[in-house]
Amino acid sequence: MSTPLYDYSVPTFIKGLKALSNILQKAADFAQEKGIAVDEVVGWKLAEDMLPVSFQVQTASNVAKNSLPRIAGYEENPIEDNEKTVAELQARIAKTIEMLEKAEASQFAGKEKNEVKIQAGPKLLEFEAQSYLTNFALPNFYFHLTTAYAIFRSKGVQLGKFDYLVPFIQ
């Protein structure tokens, strides 16, 4: 049984994480070709006052994996945010995809109005599940995915629009 909450979350997060894995690998390949230590890419930033690639990957992963229990009402599966290498970030992406692939559409049926509360710094955000997904989780996920892409482009990694989009359209 298909449900909109499932259809717009799980497949979208999986596709986005595959795109993230792809662009992270291209950044690692770029670093190797340029004689840069591959794991330096984990610390790259778009601007000095912004957070690095590692944070962008961790947050995209967290948004994806935490959205499911928040919407469907089951316990979150924490992953520590301690990755320091490209290989560790790739493993995190793979683990998140694996967690998402275990989700079943039936877990989301009729949950559109479930209450979702999120602590965002000092502010408590409250949503109905449908609004949480469309107005918070998906925009937040895309923000961190796009920021990782932008960081890599700013460092000279040859990425194009299709490196970002292809997983979404396959």
Automatic annotation (TrEMBL):
Q: Give yes or no: UniProt keyword Isomerase.
A: no
**Classification via Pfam families:** DUF1993
Which spans of this chain does the record mark as coiled coil? 79-106
Keywords for the protein's UniProt record, in alphabetical order:
Coiled coil
InterPro entries according to UniProt: DinB/YfiT-like, DUF1993
- As given in the record, the signal peptide range reads none
Q: Which domain of life is it from?
A: Eukaryota
Q: Which residues cross the membrane?
A: none
The entry's protein name is DUF1993 domain-containing protein
Q: Which organism is it from?
A: Penicillium oxalicum (strain 114-2 / CGMCC 5302) (Penicillium decumbens)
